[in-house]
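Database export, one record per block. Field names are fixed; values are copied verbatim from the stored entry.
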Amino acid sequence: MQAKAPILKIEDLHVTVEDKEILRGVNLTINPGEVHALMGRNGSGKSTLSYTLMGHPRYHISKGRVLFKGQDISTLRPDERAKLGLALAFQYPMAIPGVSVVNFLKAALRAVRGKDIPIKEFRQELKARMSELGVKDEFLSRYVNDGFSGGEKKRLEILQMLLLNPTLAVLDETDSGLDIDALKTVAHGVNTLLKPDTAILLITHYQRILDYVKPHFVHILQDGSIVASGDSELAKELEAKGYDTVTRDNIMPVSSGAV
Protein backbone atom coordinates (compact mmCIF):
# COMPACT_ATOMS: atom_id res chain seq x y z
CA MET A 1 0.00 0.00 0.00
CA GLN A 2 1.32 3.42 -0.97
CA ALA A 3 2.29 5.65 1.94
CA LYS A 4 0.24 8.79 2.41
CA ALA A 5 1.89 12.10 1.57
CA PRO A 6 2.94 14.28 4.52
CA ILE A 7 0.42 16.81 5.82
CA LEU A 8 3.20 19.23 6.75
CA LYS A 9 6.78 19.40 5.53
CA ILE A 10 9.04 22.18 6.79
CA GLU A 11 12.34 22.50 4.95
CA ASP A 12 15.30 24.52 6.30
CA LEU A 13 13.01 27.21 7.65
CA HIS A 14 14.60 30.51 8.66
CA VAL A 15 12.31 33.22 10.06
CA THR A 16 12.99 36.79 11.10
CA VAL A 17 10.89 39.13 13.24
CA GLU A 18 11.71 42.82 12.89
CA ASP A 19 15.05 41.86 11.25
CA LYS A 20 15.98 39.52 14.10
CA GLU A 21 16.42 35.88 13.11
CA ILE A 22 14.41 33.61 15.43
CA LEU A 23 14.18 30.32 13.52
CA ARG A 24 17.46 29.03 12.12
CA GLY A 25 16.88 26.03 9.90
CA VAL A 26 13.87 24.10 11.19
CA ASN A 27 13.13 20.80 9.47
CA LEU A 28 10.00 18.86 10.35
CA THR A 29 7.70 16.35 8.65
CA ILE A 30 4.26 15.50 10.01
CA ASN A 31 2.31 12.64 8.46
CA PRO A 32 -1.42 11.81 8.69
CA GLY A 33 -2.47 10.26 11.97
CA GLU A 34 0.52 11.60 13.93
CA VAL A 35 0.83 13.68 17.10
CA HIS A 36 4.04 15.69 17.38
CA ALA A 37 5.00 17.49 20.57
CA LEU A 38 7.35 20.47 20.32
CA MET A 39 9.08 21.46 23.55
CA GLY A 40 11.59 24.15 24.47
CA ARG A 41 12.43 26.99 26.78
CA ASN A 42 10.84 30.44 26.54
CA GLY A 43 12.41 32.26 23.61
CA SER A 44 13.44 29.10 21.78
CA GLY A 45 11.13 29.89 18.83
CA LYS A 46 8.09 27.70 19.52
CA SER A 47 5.45 30.40 19.17
CA THR A 48 7.35 31.93 16.26
CA LEU A 49 6.96 28.62 14.43
CA SER A 50 3.23 28.48 15.13
CA TYR A 51 2.64 32.07 13.97
CA THR A 52 4.76 31.48 10.87
CA LEU A 53 2.74 28.39 9.97
CA MET A 54 -0.46 30.40 10.24
CA GLY A 55 0.91 33.32 8.18
CA HIS A 56 1.26 36.15 10.71
CA PRO A 57 2.53 39.15 8.68
CA ARG A 58 5.23 40.10 11.23
CA TYR A 59 7.01 36.78 10.71
CA HIS A 60 9.14 36.81 7.56
CA ILE A 61 10.47 33.63 5.95
CA SER A 62 14.00 34.52 4.84
CA LYS A 63 14.92 31.00 3.72
CA GLY A 64 13.28 27.61 3.30
CA ARG A 65 9.66 26.72 2.72
CA VAL A 66 6.53 25.30 4.31
CA LEU A 67 4.57 22.67 2.40
CA PHE A 68 1.03 21.90 3.53
CA LYS A 69 -0.52 18.89 1.80
CA GLY A 70 2.15 19.31 -0.87
CA GLN A 71 1.46 23.01 -1.51
CA ASP A 72 3.93 25.76 -0.67
CA ILE A 73 1.86 28.03 1.60
CA SER A 74 4.61 30.54 2.40
CA THR A 75 2.87 33.40 0.57
CA LEU A 76 -0.74 32.55 1.46
CA ARG A 77 -2.85 34.72 3.77
CA PRO A 78 -4.00 33.26 7.12
CA ASP A 79 -7.59 32.88 5.87
CA GLU A 80 -6.36 30.98 2.81
CA ARG A 81 -4.38 28.62 5.02
CA ALA A 82 -7.41 28.10 7.24
CA LYS A 83 -9.54 27.14 4.25
CA LEU A 84 -6.91 24.55 3.30
CA GLY A 85 -7.31 22.94 6.72
CA LEU A 86 -4.70 24.58 8.96
CA ALA A 87 -5.75 25.91 12.37
CA LEU A 88 -3.97 27.48 15.34
CA ALA A 89 -5.09 27.54 18.98
CA PHE A 90 -3.46 30.52 20.66
CA GLN A 91 -1.53 30.53 23.91
CA TYR A 92 -3.20 33.83 24.87
CA PRO A 93 -6.61 34.03 23.14
CA MET A 94 -7.90 37.58 22.63
CA ALA A 95 -11.06 38.90 24.23
CA ILE A 96 -13.66 40.28 21.81
CA PRO A 97 -16.21 42.28 23.85
CA GLY A 98 -19.59 42.61 22.17
CA VAL A 99 -19.26 39.45 20.05
CA SER A 100 -21.07 36.42 21.42
CA VAL A 101 -19.45 33.01 21.35
CA VAL A 102 -22.23 31.53 19.22
CA ASN A 103 -21.97 34.28 16.58
CA PHE A 104 -18.19 34.05 16.58
CA LEU A 105 -18.24 30.28 16.04
CA LYS A 106 -20.87 30.55 13.31
CA ALA A 107 -18.81 33.21 11.47
CA ALA A 108 -15.60 31.17 11.79
CA LEU A 109 -17.23 28.04 10.42
CA ARG A 110 -18.81 29.95 7.53
CA ALA A 111 -15.48 31.59 6.67
CA VAL A 112 -13.56 28.30 6.59
CA ARG A 113 -16.21 26.36 4.68
CA GLY A 114 -16.87 29.24 2.31
CA LYS A 115 -20.64 28.95 2.56
CA ASP A 116 -23.52 29.49 4.94
CA ILE A 117 -24.44 26.62 7.26
CA PRO A 118 -28.14 25.93 7.90
CA ILE A 119 -29.05 26.98 11.44
CA LYS A 120 -30.36 23.54 12.40
CA GLU A 121 -27.21 21.81 11.14
CA PHE A 122 -24.97 24.33 12.93
CA ARG A 123 -26.86 23.96 16.22
CA GLN A 124 -26.71 20.16 16.09
CA GLU A 125 -23.01 20.15 15.35
CA LEU A 126 -22.27 22.76 17.99
CA LYS A 127 -24.28 20.94 20.67
CA ALA A 128 -22.44 17.70 19.96
CA ARG A 129 -19.05 19.36 20.31
CA MET A 130 -20.08 21.21 23.47
CA SER A 131 -21.19 17.93 25.01
CA GLU A 132 -17.76 16.43 24.34
CA LEU A 133 -16.09 19.26 26.27
CA GLY A 134 -18.69 19.65 29.01
CA VAL A 135 -19.52 23.21 27.90
CA LYS A 136 -22.85 24.56 29.16
CA ASP A 137 -25.44 26.39 27.05
CA GLU A 138 -24.97 29.73 28.83
CA PHE A 139 -21.39 29.77 27.51
CA LEU A 140 -22.73 30.62 24.04
CA SER A 141 -24.29 33.96 24.98
CA ARG A 142 -21.13 35.30 26.65
CA TYR A 143 -18.74 37.58 24.79
CA VAL A 144 -15.66 35.87 23.35
CA ASN A 145 -13.03 35.41 26.10
CA ASP A 146 -14.39 38.49 27.91
CA GLY A 147 -13.97 37.75 31.61
CA PHE A 148 -13.18 34.10 30.87
CA SER A 149 -10.98 32.07 33.18
CA GLY A 150 -7.87 30.45 31.71
CA GLY A 151 -9.66 27.11 31.51
CA GLU A 152 -12.68 28.65 29.77
CA LYS A 153 -10.47 30.32 27.16
CA LYS A 154 -8.76 27.03 26.36
CA ARG A 155 -12.08 25.17 26.19
CA LEU A 156 -13.29 27.71 23.65
CA GLU A 157 -10.11 27.27 21.61
CA ILE A 158 -10.65 23.50 21.51
CA LEU A 159 -14.36 23.95 20.78
CA GLN A 160 -13.41 26.04 17.74
CA MET A 161 -11.01 23.32 16.64
CA LEU A 162 -13.64 20.61 16.95
CA LEU A 163 -16.07 22.64 14.85
CA LEU A 164 -13.53 23.60 12.18
CA ASN A 165 -12.14 20.05 12.03
CA PRO A 166 -8.74 21.05 10.61
CA THR A 167 -6.36 18.72 8.81
CA LEU A 168 -3.54 20.03 11.02
CA ALA A 169 -4.23 21.49 14.44
CA VAL A 170 -1.37 23.57 15.87
CA LEU A 171 -1.85 24.02 19.62
CA ASP A 172 0.37 26.70 21.14
CA GLU A 173 0.71 25.91 24.88
CA THR A 174 -2.95 25.02 25.20
CA ASP A 175 -2.15 23.42 28.58
CA SER A 176 -0.77 26.58 30.20
CA GLY A 177 -2.67 27.78 33.26
CA LEU A 178 -5.00 24.77 33.46
CA ASP A 179 -5.87 22.86 36.60
CA ILE A 180 -5.92 19.08 36.37
CA ASP A 181 -9.67 18.80 35.61
CA ALA A 182 -9.51 21.40 32.84
CA LEU A 183 -6.36 19.77 31.50
CA LYS A 184 -8.09 16.39 31.20
CA THR A 185 -11.09 17.97 29.45
CA VAL A 186 -8.93 19.88 26.98
CA ALA A 187 -6.76 16.81 26.36
CA HIS A 188 -9.89 14.78 25.57
CA GLY A 189 -10.86 17.41 23.01
CA VAL A 190 -7.37 17.33 21.49
CA ASN A 191 -7.49 13.54 21.19
CA THR A 192 -10.86 13.83 19.44
CA LEU A 193 -9.21 15.98 16.75
CA LEU A 194 -6.88 13.17 15.71
CA LYS A 195 -8.10 10.94 12.89
CA PRO A 196 -6.31 8.78 10.30
CA ASP A 197 -6.18 11.72 7.87
CA THR A 198 -5.41 14.54 10.35
CA ALA A 199 -2.46 15.46 12.57
CA ILE A 200 -1.59 17.53 15.63
CA LEU A 201 1.40 19.72 16.47
CA LEU A 202 1.30 20.24 20.23
CA ILE A 203 3.58 23.00 21.53
CA THR A 204 4.18 22.79 25.28
CA HIS A 205 6.61 23.54 28.09
CA TYR A 206 5.61 20.63 30.25
CA GLN A 207 5.33 16.88 30.03
CA ARG A 208 2.06 16.66 31.99
CA ILE A 209 -0.34 17.10 29.04
CA LEU A 210 1.57 14.30 27.29
CA ASP A 211 0.21 11.93 29.95
CA TYR A 212 -3.19 12.46 28.32
CA VAL A 213 -2.27 13.24 24.70
CA LYS A 214 0.21 10.58 23.64
CA PRO A 215 2.74 11.90 21.08
CA HIS A 216 4.28 9.74 18.40
CA PHE A 217 7.25 12.11 18.27
CA VAL A 218 8.75 14.67 20.65
CA HIS A 219 11.06 17.41 19.36
CA ILE A 220 13.24 19.81 21.33
CA LEU A 221 13.62 23.33 19.93
CA GLN A 222 16.66 25.31 21.05
CA ASP A 223 18.00 28.57 19.63
CA GLY A 224 15.67 28.37 16.66
CA SER A 225 16.25 24.82 15.45
CA ILE A 226 15.28 21.29 16.41
CA VAL A 227 18.25 19.77 18.25
CA ALA A 228 16.75 16.46 19.37
CA SER A 229 13.82 14.20 18.55
CA GLY A 230 12.49 11.00 20.03
CA ASP A 231 9.38 9.35 21.42
CA SER A 232 7.42 10.16 24.58
CA GLU A 233 10.34 9.00 26.73
CA LEU A 234 12.28 12.06 25.62
CA ALA A 235 9.64 14.31 27.24
CA LYS A 236 9.86 12.35 30.49
CA GLU A 237 13.65 12.61 30.49
CA LEU A 238 13.39 16.32 29.86
CA GLU A 239 10.93 16.74 32.74
CA ALA A 240 13.28 14.88 35.07
CA LYS A 241 16.61 16.39 34.02
CA GLY A 242 15.79 19.75 32.39
CA TYR A 243 16.75 21.36 29.11
CA ASP A 244 20.42 21.57 30.02
CA THR A 245 20.67 17.83 29.30
CA VAL A 246 19.89 18.50 25.63
CA THR A 247 22.70 20.45 23.99
CA ARG A 248 24.22 20.61 20.57
CA ASP A 249 27.07 18.48 21.91
CA ASN A 250 24.59 15.85 23.13
CA ILE A 251 22.08 15.52 20.31
CA MET A 252 19.82 12.50 20.46
CA PRO A 253 19.05 10.63 17.23
CA VAL A 254 16.50 12.52 15.16
CA SER A 255 13.40 10.49 14.37
CA SER A 256 11.83 10.12 10.95
CA GLY A 257 9.26 12.69 12.00
CA ALA A 258 11.87 15.47 11.88
CA VAL A 259 13.32 14.86 8.46
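Remark 1: The chain has one domain: 8-258.
Remark 2: The two ends are 22 Å apart (CA to CA).
End of record.
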